[in-house]
Amino acid sequence: MRLLLPLLLAVWVSAPFGCCSLPTSSCLQPPAKWCSSLDSAVQCGVLKQCLESDFSRSRRTEEPVQVGLYYESLCPGCRKFLTEMLFPTYLLLDIMSVTLVPYGNAQETPVAQKYTYECQHGKQECLGNMIETCIMNMTDMAFPIIFCMESSADVIGSAESCLKVYAPDLSMDKVMSCVNGDMGMQLMHQNALQTKALNPPHQYVPWITINGVHTEDLQEKAMSSLFTLVCSMYKVQLMSLI
């Protein structure tokens, strides 16, 4: 999915007379998986663009800028940042990695060797947090799925349709088995531990870290132009190697 926007732009530019080269009838993969294998790239007519993208990544030696988002699935500000800033920047820049931690201001209570959760926006938010957490543990297409959910009017109700688009092999039944089972509980407990370990402790959501660090200056820059911030941080990392 990360390659989709640059890939489509490359196909458009390289096509004669500016006409976008559409995938052939033998292309059975969704756009997010066009570069997932050599066969898919050939069938979908994007082999050149996939190879060029892989070559570019192979020449990079510096570690990507790590962007962490501590958020809540039904928090309006979190949803806005994830869908309008974080995900678009992630698509455009392959010099960044993203860690999503859906927990935020939730409260965890141990009960008989298990945990219960209360969320700022109620039980539905706890469910949304759990669904997204389980999806992250079950597919490498988690970020596009979560973007799909968070950009929908109904975050939780859209989960199944988003799965069908980006991870058709992963059923909603499997996700809910995780949500309602011990696995989901343990995964959410890890989210709670990660959030509680933040230094400084988070005061609000969305709470953004860059390379594991949070400052008000970094937060403001990430909220206003994450693209500019990541590029500047990457340049600093490169300069430190010279």
From TrEMBL:
Complex and partners: Dimer; disulfide-linked.
Signal sequence, renumbered to the chain: 1-21
Top EC class for this record: oxidoreductase
PROSITE patterns, A to Z: SAP_A
EC number in record: 1.8.-.-
Domain Saposin A-type stretches: 20-60
PANTHER family: GAMMA-INTERFERON INDUCIBLE LYSOSOMAL THIOL REDUCTASE GILT (PTHR13234), GAMMA-INTERFERON-INDUCIBLE LYSOSOMAL THIOL REDUCTASE (PTHR13234:SF43)
Name used for this protein in its record: Gamma-interferon-inducible lysosomal thiol reductase
Subcellular location per the Swiss-Prot or TrEMBL entry: Secreted; Lysosome
Coiled-coil parts of chain: none
First-listed, main subcellular location of the protein, grouped into a coarse class: secreted
Family: Belongs to the GILT family.
Keyword terms of this UniProt record: Disulfide bond, Glycoprotein, Immunity, Lysosome, Oxidoreductase, Redox-active center, Secreted, Signal
GO molecular function: oxidoreductase activity, acting on a sulfur group of donors, disulfide as acceptor
Record's GO cellular component terms: extracellular region; lysosome
InterPro entries, per database record: Interferon-induced_GILT (IPR004911), SAP_A (IPR003119)
A Gene Ontology biological process term: immune system process
